[in-house]
Amino acid sequence: MKLTWLDSNSWLIELAGKRILLDPWLVGSLVFGNLSWLFKGEKNASRPIPEKIDLILLSQGLEDHAHPPTLKQLDRNIPVVASPNAARVVRELGYLQVTALAHGETFTLAHQIEIKAVPGSPIGPQLVENGYLLKDLENGQTIYYEPHGYHSPALKANAPVDVVITPIIDLKIPLLGSVIKGQQSALEVCKWLQPQVIVPTAAGGDITFEGLLMSVLRAEGSVETFRALLAKNHLSTRAIEPKPGEAFEVELEKRAVSL
Q1: Whole-structure pTM over 0.85, yes or no?
Q2: Among 73, 115, 164, 205, whose Cα sits 20 to 30 Å from the Cα of 193?
Q3: Comparing C-alpha atoms, which of 228, 121, 117, 241 is closest to residue 180?
């Protein structure tokens, strides 16, 4: 298993010989609803769009997960697996092979990787987007991804999971609460899933953010403080801090393959 963090929520996952592009924002600015005065993200370093992508995987339909300028640059023939909300975005952009997964539904890529949609982040009062469980069907290695730190208790039935990709830093708006749930939420999911490795997503990266929203957002926590939390709770999970744009092999102990 090899992972490459491409800033923000964007990842290249190499699993079972396949290359999965997850929630890609790779070109242009990140703006919500053309309101650049409210929030705007700019990458400090341009990187080439990864080649030979076997699947695009989208957890949400918002711009920081289904980023229209990036999706317009990618080959419309690449298969896409997405939340129903994100599936509408890519279909409108002309993608030809789009599978929308509701919670609990699965998709199998080339008989080698099973992708299961699980409840993820609430977007408004009636919409809950997707998290994902990815499983290498040959060796049983598993990845759980949820980009905002909202973890369904139903995940406990999938334990153990080898790798968790989720925020470990809280982003809060005073008086309103968490936009992204980090430290305690990540600790709870580590207790549930007993992962060998946890890798942070969402916060940080080689990006400059500006706009009114940035003046009120507050970040709390760090990789170091989360490692201390793991130790305090007698968890053997390793917290790995990725470097943007640099691929790394995830070293895992072998676990019995469930049949």
Answers
A1: yes
A2: 205
A3: 121
Structure tokens at 73: 């640059």
Judge: domain 2-249, CATH 3.60.15.10. yes
- Give the CA angle between residues 129, 135, 141 to the nearest 5°: 130
- Cα–chain center distance at 74: 19
pLDDT tens digits, the chain, 259 residues: what are they?
A: 999 999 889 999 999 999 999 999 898 766 666 666 556 667 777 778 999 999 999 999 988 899 999 999 999 999 999 999 999 999 999 999 999 999 999 999 999 999 999 999 998 788 999 999 999 999 999 999 999 999 999 999 999 999 999 999 887 665 556 678 989 999 999 999 999 999 999 766 666 666 666 566 677 889 999 999 999 999 999 999 999 999 999 999 886 554 4
Distance between CA atoms of residues 214 and 232, nearest Å: 32
Sign of the alpha-carbon torsion through 108, 114, 120, 126: positive
Q: How many CA atoms lie within 13 A of 196 on its CB side?
A: 12
Do you know the residue count of the chain?
259
Q: Which of 88, 83, 75, 68 is nearest to 19 (CA)?
A: 75
Which residues does 228 contact at the CB level (< 8 Å), separation at least 6? none
Contact 228, 216 (CB under 8 A): no
